[in-house]
Design a protein that fits this description.
By secondary structure, this protein is α/β, with parallel strands linked by helices. The protein has helices spanning 31-43, 58-68, 83-88, 100-120, 168-187, 189-197, 206-216, 258-267, 285-295, 309-318, 333-339, 351-356, 370-386, 388-402, 407-432; strands spanning 2-3, 17-22, 48-54, 74-79, 125-130, 147-152, 200-203, 221-222, 243-249, 273-279, 301-305, 321-324, 345-348, 362-365. Strand 7, helix 7 (206-216) and strand 8 (221-222) form a beta-alpha-beta unit.
């Protein structure tokens, strides 16, 4: 079902017209939802932006616009699922963020809708934004205008040495995903076509950039897919108590590896005093609660459950340190949210986390093997608990580093990409004439 009832914002003929596709787009949710909203609103600062999104995004967007008013130069159009797409949506998601069959069906509808829109109001650039996973790039390149894809992620895999630590089910799922990743990234017809026809491919992290350049022998622009809107003017003062306040946030799933943090705290429970808050939900919650009891740290651990985005961000102001144990992530918006409040991060030194966190804003743990990682996590937590001066220094460094990931800065970088593409296209037209 296609909805063309949205009223267009006042248009400026002097502004280039950009068509963005964001399956998820919301000003109030995190992850891909926030990614879609961030790039849409940034595009509207400098261009006439038309955003095609799913019906899932409509409630949040319309509530926001009714409360704060329309955003100049920004128009949202909604494409609902067909009957076939809804049926396909009932099939298993496997290890993916959304159902690939249903999403592919939606992309086909988007292409037909985009062709109609382009015939009515010519666009200068088409930009496929979300989902950021590389598997379903859409076919906006068939519009015959410059096509930008990304920033894309999903190319990274769960470290093989940690598969056993993920448990039987989690380890098996991650192993299967790694094999599928290898094959799909190299041999998927959709991916190969998009890589070949895109004017620009944006990689969300350095690992993805290297993969694109190695497999497809083409340049990729590295640009983090997400961002933050606000950075505190000064760091939140570390708690004066002798308790180290630790925050963990995310899906309670195998790829996030929260058990590594619990086991590290279990080894130092008699050496330091700490409070741990775990925000999130997922299939591992009961297992993690049981493990906390077995480790003797359950009285110092609080499982908060799911919180709205605003409440979750406020947790960073409570914490002395943010623990990001994820073993497979394109980036990690929760790290940015913590750093924007001056909360330093402990994370693994790989994938998107390695690009985000620096030595001045946190502590990065080498990806070696589970037993060694647990000891290194324990050592890092102990050092911060015992050295409040170091904690304050890292807090200041976290604020400074967070400045690099403001949405306004990301928007300027993307505008540079748009302008380069538009200039190249204009030159090509001139040469043909």
């Amino acid at each position: 079902m296609l909805d063309e009832t949205a009223e267009p914002a006042r248009q400026s003929q002097s502004r280039p017209r950009v068509l963005l596709v964001c399956y998820y787009c919301s000003p109030t949710k995190g992850s891909d939802w926030r990614v879609g909203w961030g790039w849409a609103t940034e595009a509207a600062r400098r261009y006439e932006a038309v955003v095609i999104t799913s019906e899932l995004s409509r409630p949040d967007i319309e509530t926001y616009l009714s409360e704060y008013g329309k955003i100049p130069h920004l128009r949202f159009l909604y494409v609902g699922q067909s009957a076939a797409g809804r049926w396909l949506g009932k099939l298993p998601r496997f290890f993916l963020y959304t159902n690939p069959f249903s999403y592919s069906s939606w992309q086909s509808q988007v292409l037909a809708f985009a062709h109609k829109l382009h015939g009515e109001q010519l666009f200068n650039v088409a930009h496929q934004v979300t989902l950021i996973g590389f598997r379903e790039p859409g076919k906006l390149y068939e519009l015959g205008i410059p096509f930008i894809w990304g920033p894309i992620g999903g190319t990274q895999n769960f470290p093989a040495r940690f598969l056993r630590a993920a448990g039987l089910v989690g380890g098996l799922q991650e192993a299967i995903r790694s094999v599928c990743n290898f094959l799909q990234f190299r041999y998927s017809r959709k991916v190969r076509s998009a890589m070949r026809k895109a004017a620009v491919v944006l990689a969300a992290n350095s690992e993805g950039k290297r993969a694109i350049e190695h497999v497809y022998c083409r340049d990729a622009v590295q640009l983090l897919e997400t961002g933050i809107e606000f950075v505190s003017p000064k760091p939140v003062v570390a708690s004066a108590s002798n308790h180290l306040r630790i925050l963990w946030s995310g899906d309670l799933a195998a790829r996030k590896a929260p058990q590594i943090l619990l086991r590290a705290l279990g080894t130092i429970r008699n050496d330091i005093k700490f409070e741990l808050r775990i925000w999130g939900r997922g299939p591992l919650r009961k297992k993690l609660e049981m493990e906390a009891r077995q480790l003797g740290i359950h009285q110092s651990c609080k499982f908060v459950g799911w919180l709205p985005l605003k409440d979750a961000m406020a947790q960073s102001e409570w914490a002395d340190v943010f623990a990001f144990t994820s073993l497979r992530d394109t980036s990690g918006n929760v790290m940015l949210e913590a750093m924007s409040r001056g909360t330093p991060v402990i994370c693994f030194d790989h994938q998107g986390a390695a690009d985000i966190v620096t030595e001045s804003s946190g502590i990065k743990i080498p990806v070696t093997y589970p037993e060694d990682a647990i000891q290194r996590w324990a050592s890092a937590l102990t050092s911060l608990a015992q050295d409040r001066r170091l904690l304050r220094q890292l807090s200041e460094g976290a604020l400074s580093r967070a400045e690099f990931f403001l949405w306004s800065r990301n928007g300027s970088a993307m505008s540079g990409v748009y302008d380069t593409v538009l200039s190249t296209a204009k030159s090509a037209v001139g040469r043909r004439r």
